[in-house]
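Researcher: Go.
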Amino acid sequence: MDETQLGAAGAPVPADRLRRASGARMSQGPEPAAPAIPTHEEMAGRLRGARERLQGIAHRTPVVTSRTLDRRTGAKVFLKCENLQRMGAFKFRGAYNTISRLPEDARRRGVVAYSSGNHAQAVALSCRLLGVPATIVMPSTAPRVKLEATRGYGAEIVHHDDHGMEREGLSAKLSRERGLTLIPPFDHPDIIAGQGTAAAELLEDAGPLDLLLVPVGGGGLISGSSLAARLLCPGCRVVGVEPAAGDDGARSFRSGRIERAEKPQTIADGARTPSLGVITFEMIRRYVSDMTSVPDAELVRAMRFMWERVKLVVEPTGVLGLAALLSGPVRAEGMRVGVILSGGNVEPAQALEWFRASA
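Model: Structure:
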């Protein structure tokens, strides 16, 4: 597998696409650099570095089990509780890992990021810890709890809809005008490596797994998770789960090209990305066994199960993998199954409305 990597359907991905450079660069100039596709060896090294960098900084979140869940699924299920991570989601891992590697002059100028919520909070908190100025581009309609938390960590918030621009365009404009480093939400090797540390911990704490279920938005978490699984538990199948209204990743996986889902209407706000990234698409093709999706109604049911039976607050995006296991798209009888609960940032009042409507 040195000269080519196999895609989702066994199609070879040319080696020159996997070896363009040592990694994608973060935008600091007039034109963002095209993401480069790192090799397996490079990403393995980045994952090792991320684990060292995050030790004592990111929480080693607990792995929780539930006999009720095991009975319902016929499997032995291990829940990796990234809803209990700093700022309430796995995103802290990638953001801190990436920003901590910036040179000192870039840190002084500051960073800019765009996000509907969790990446925003992750960048804001990481910058506060590292003493880096942060500007976050968010929609004014982002969940209130995420807006308030981002502002509370000391970041400047700019609403792109107030400027009549898309968030990516406004972020690039601010990067150029202010000399800020753009921290992408998922399509960067250091972001991916940071996110992969969650799955690495899960595999160490739970032991060998037959199956790992991972939420998918832009693909950073599943890229890092599937890399960690390949390195630590090669026999583990990794399956990505998206909301049915935003199944661009599953369609991309099957078609062999990046598909889009424009403004997907789903309660899983962390998975409303229009498409996978260039790097994450290729890593999914390398390492992921399958992709599936679940409707929003199943996300509400899975959230309710977590809140009522496991006593854990998890957001809609965070239960994507669990919803696939509980509702049937993924069958796992007799297996040892890992599920990454990716985040827990949700407004309680909104969650209660969803629960009442589903009753």
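Model: Residues 1-25, 27-31 have pLDDT under 50 and may be disordered.
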